[in-house]
Structures are given as structure tokens and as C-alpha cells.
Amino acid sequence: MTTRNDWITTPVSLDILRGALDLERTERGVLPHRLPARARRQIPDGQLAMAESQPSGVRLAFRSPATAVELDVVATKRVYPGAPPRPDGVYELLVDGRPAGRAVAPDGDTLTIDLASGSAQSRPGPVETLRFTGLPEGDKGIEIWLPHDETTQLVALRTDAPTRPPQPSDRPVWLHHGSSISHGSNAEAPTGTWPALAAAHGGAELINLGFGGSALLDPFTARAIRDTPADLISLKIGINLVNADLMRLRAFGPAVHGFLDTVREGHPTTPLLVVSPICCPIHENTPGPSAPDTDAMGEGRLRFIATGDPAETAAGKLTLTVIRDELARLVAQRAADDPHLHHLDGLGLYGEADNAELPLPDELHPDPATHRLIARRFADAAFGPGGPFARRDR
After folding, report:
1. pLDDT digits over 9-52, tens only?
2. How would you class 384 by CB atoms within 10 Å of its CB: exposed for 0-12, middle for 13-18, buried for 19 or more?
3. What is the C-alpha to C-alpha distance for residues 269 and 266, in angstroms, rounded to an integer?
4. Which residues contact 362 (CB under 8 A, 6 or more apart)?
5. What is the dihedral angle through the alpha carbons of 24, 259, 201, 142, rounded to the nearest 10 degrees?
6. Residue 94 DSSP SS3
7. What is the C-alpha separation between 355 and 278, in angstroms, rounded?
8. CA atoms within 13 A of residue 201's CA, in its CB half-sphere
9. pTM here?
10. Helix (H, G, I), strand (E, B), or coil: what is residue 310?
């Protein structure tokens, strides 16, 4: 049995983190970020600040003969008054790529968010220790995937044998940017988000820049993508622009061009896939903004509704139908001079017939089965034979 004196502490640094662009030192440990400090200084709202600190796709990765691992964390628990309690975030341990354990941190800091007003209050909480034991003997690759939707400060990593950083991977780095659907809303675990599943299918190393409520064509996000080494890039654009009611059609086209121009400054020939929105019936032909359904909240359910007027599309308000048509047009226009730019219709990932069989539980976000469906279809379309991410293109 391992005693406290037998543990070896490994400092948490970017050398043993995958999927994070920055690491902030805090009073209690380190906090992985999915946007660099320069971009974070330009964030205009608390929603994106919260989303980018939630470590979707971020994992500790090291090699060791250890048979026991401990990880001290401070997790941030979100509470939405009137909505159902959120499940604890899941930490997944993988050994040589295979699942080998799960854990949760039952307590931590608490962030209480009022969905109606957007106000938030925080309360500090304790450090929790996660333990993984019974790992197989011998040298092996160990990964601990952090909760995709729960901000997590890493306080200490301990093992019962020495660790070393993993060898450089020969797998291509795939950087994906999108909304809460890409972030992993309603996925059951961090390796169960559709980008994580698609990366596993496609044999790629994932950097997930899916930000809940915040895929809004922000220039600082484009610059972060521009400056991040990647072999493959995909951008899923649309749903947040509608449900935030952020811009009109006149602004949308130039904003997409500007975002793509910035990405291309750092990745002039990298395969770049633009993905339009999946089916979301409340916003197919009805503009935003979306809002929580107060009647459902009164029943303890979380459900969203569209509050716009379909007639307003004549004045340039955006719907998912409008965005799909415009993205297809813009990509076709640019592809004439950019042979490495590609388009994927989101309805091919999850369409009207899929919604009838696997409806979105809260009218906006897919359930775990739908994450698996989207992942399989994306992997086939992007990484499969003839796809823009197929190995012949690299």
C-alpha cells in the first residue's frame, strides 16, 4: 500500500498538458486556459471568460510505471437557481489510450448564475483529492482528461513512481472552434464530446476551442487560432450568432471573411474546414435571441425558446437557414483561390430526421447519443477517404 511518503509530486506545466493554450498560476495551483492571456484581456463578457476556463479537451499526459495516481483539484460547481442541479464534472483516466478509471470532485468553489439577469456570485470551496489505483504494471502512457464543462484548478499531481513527459506524437494536431455543442454541452464525460470522439476516430490530437455561447467570430479568437500550431483546422459557425442575436446579415459576411483572413495569416495552406450549423428547430427560421423557458423552469426543467420574429429576416436578422446559405456561398467564393478551404453542411451531421429520432433535450444541445452520431459522421466526412483531413492531404 502506498503511503504518503512514497508519493512523488510532479509539477503541472504545459509540458504535460495537452489541449491548453495557457496556464495561469493561482493562489492554490494552476488553471488551464483555452485562450491565451492576450485574448483573455479582450474578453467582453463573463460567459466567454467562464467557457474558455472550462477545460474541454484538456488532459494531463505523461509516461510512468506508476500503479497509483492522485490529483488534487479545486473544481468550480455551477448552480442555476430554478434549473435542475448540474452533475459533477468527470475526470477520466486513460492508460495507453484505453479507459482505466473515472472520478469526480464532489465539492469545490461554487458559482451561482441567474439565467434571467446574468448576474453571478461565487463562493470558495475546498481542495478535493482524486485517486486512481490498480493501474497495470510497467511503463505506459497515462492521460487524465479534465471535466469538459467544469473549471478546474490543478493543485498537485502525485504518483507512486517517477513520471516523464510523453514523447512527441506523430498524430496530426486538429484545432476545432465552435459553440457549446462543440464545447460538449450534455456530453456524459470529457472523452464523450463529439470533437473528442471524432479525434479518436480520426487519429488526431485535439485542441478544442469550443466555447459555450461564445462562437461569435471574435477577432481575438481568430488571432489565437492563427498563432496556435495545428495541422488541421475546423470552424463551426452559426448557432451562437443567432441565439445571441449578435449581428445582421450585412455584418455577418465581412465578419466571416475577416475571421478566415486572420486564420490564414498563420495557416496559409492548412486544411481548413468551415462547418455550418446542425439542425436546431427553434432557430431554423426564427431569429434570436433565445431565452430560458420560464414555464419549464417553474417545473424544474431547462428548456430554451426563440424570441425573435421570422418576419425580421427581411431586415437582415439571422436564422440558421440564412447562415447555412451564406456560409456555402462564401466558402465557394474563397475556395476559388484557396484549394485548402472546404465546407461541410451541418445538416449532414444532424438533420431534421435525426432531430425527430434524437431530439435536443433542451431545444439547443445534443444528448450523449447525438454527440456520438455527430462524431461518427464528422470523422467519416473529414478524416475519411476523400475528406479534407484525410492523410493524403497532409
Report:
1. 999 999 999 999 999 999 999 999 999 999 999 999 999 999 99
2. middle
3. 9
4. 186, 302, 303, 304
5. -10
6. strand
7. 10
8. 23
9. 0.95
10. helix
